[in-house]
Amino acid sequence: MTQYAAFLRGINVGGIKVPMAALRACLDGAGYPGAKTFLQTGNLLLESSRSATALEAHLAKVIGEAFAYKAFVQVVTAKALAKIIASCPYDDGDDGRHAYVVFVGDGDIRRELLAANSDLDPAVDEIAPGPGVVYWQVPKGQTTKSAFGKLLSKKRFQAQTTTRNL
User: Fold this and answer.
1) pLDDT for 125-148, tens place per residue?
2) With contact defined as beta carbons under 8 Å apart, do 121 and 65 qualify?
3) What whole-number distance in Å separates Cα of residue 13 and Cα of residue 111?
4) pTM score, two decimals?
5) Burial, 80: exposed, middle or buried (Cβ in 10 Å; 0-12, 13-18, 19+)?
């Protein structure tokens, strides 16, 4: 069994309500006993013998059906997550800026997001490549207003990205 972290995109915002106790019960019934949730944003820790790709598809189906919405899920091994966190070039200290990790499920989408760097104001948006992710740092209060934040909100990125602060 492999330990995985899974990240659900867009729950408990925009009218999609997924209580964490109900999510854990759903996962238990789907064959993931002992799955843990963190915060209310759909951060999961679970074990599975499935590959990350197969697990991602299965979780999206099971969760989407259980809560009647189009579920978007990003899955990484716990080992890969530790590497992603350790490799972040930004500090999430209290210096007036947020450090984020954008989990990207598609290599072409990741390249497209990284290509946006030349159009960004480095005083506002800083981005950097990471292992299967894009690191992003932005001033507090600017997350949804910045150029990169607006780019991430485009519909074409919904199924392929989810963002978590470091």
Assistant:
1) 999 999 889 999 999 999 999 999
2) no
3) 27
4) 0.88
5) middle
